[in-house]
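User: Quick sanity check before I run a bigger batch. Here is a single chain. Can you write out its predicted 3D structure?
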Amino acid sequence: MDGGDRHDAPPAAASVEAVFREEHGRLLASLVRRFGDLDLAEEVASEAMEAALVHWPVQGVPARPAAWLLTTARRKAVDRLRRDQAYAARLAVLQVEADRAGPAAPADLDGDLPDERLRLFFTCAHPALAAEDRAALTLRCLAGLTTPEVARAFLVPAATMAQRIVRAKRKIRQARIPFRVPGADELPRRLPGVLQVVYSIFTEGYAASSGPLLQRLDLAEEAIRLMRILRRLLPAEREVTGLLALMLLVHARRAARTGPGGEMVLLADQARDRWDHAMIEEGRGLVLAALSGGPAGPYAVQAAIAAVHDEAADVATTDWPQVVALYDVLLVLVPSPVVALNRAVAVAMRDGPAAGLALLDALADDPRLRGHHPYPAARADLLHRLGRLPEAAAAYRHALALAGTDPERAHLRRKLTEVEAPGHDDATGA
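Assistant: Done. Predicted structure follows.
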């Protein structure tokens, strides 16, 4: 997005990016609903953004920028179809099939059109797609994340993720997967994929994978808004409630997670009076609902862990035995190395750094953690607390090489300086 020498281009470019990031999902969903082809929708949406970068610096940002983008994208799609009759004929077949799912909602991107996006969410989460491809495609198309951001969220190389996205779009096209919300008989199979996608969007917002900011609040808030829509539509689904609770309980800490200059503030050092206590209360109420009526799901258990943290006056008075017990339950439901990592940190708080370090070292050969910087960062912290400073320094350097955001790197550099300081003999890590 080169602004050249124009003084007004950078603000216009920022406006385009802000609108596109905010409205990307609705814009794409409306275009797919209208034309029945995901590739075409993505291409003309990008062309509309390029047109905005040309026109907005001269004409000003329109009063209804999202509607401007939609109108421009539609015109470009129609022009393309007029030039390519074979392509138009294929899309006509797809459109007939899409129309069987019901009439389209009015196309007004300045209004609230949750159903349009839900159709696209469920299309991307169709069981005909591989599980890893569903999440990748939805993050790319509905959240507007870049391919490297999606790759970082799933701990895989960017090239691998690009292949997944292409493969998923090809499968949708070849299998003629309909653009619709599934019926009641399909919903139990399809909902977990949608929830995974929304949670991945929130995770990227809560802890950005790269860039100058620790948090991307726009993404986190978009994920919460989408979860509120899902809960309105699916109020009896307890894992929908659990995921919304988890997001609220974590997002409630947003104001305290960074300092005045955007620097990273760890949970132990956060000013808890800056937490959003109204959001915490809402989240706690949802946790109770998510845990009632049968065995708890993974999101409900994670929400319960977040609630224990939010209810404590400080880290020292946190109920660590309860946190470990909840992680024990979660590890059965989701036997992943990231859950095991978080459990090890909780054990360190309950039983001491040596106990936690032993658990972390047992995970050392898991390839899924090799590019995950919280793993060496957690080891470094425990080694620091144990007074094993040369090993702590090596682990901090490893984490520093993997960290994606400027605040994370700055925090790790400060910790590395502490353990490398001459005469440093602090065995407590305080």
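Residues 1-9, 101-113, 426-430 have pLDDT under 50 and may be disordered.

User: Great, the batch can go ahead then.
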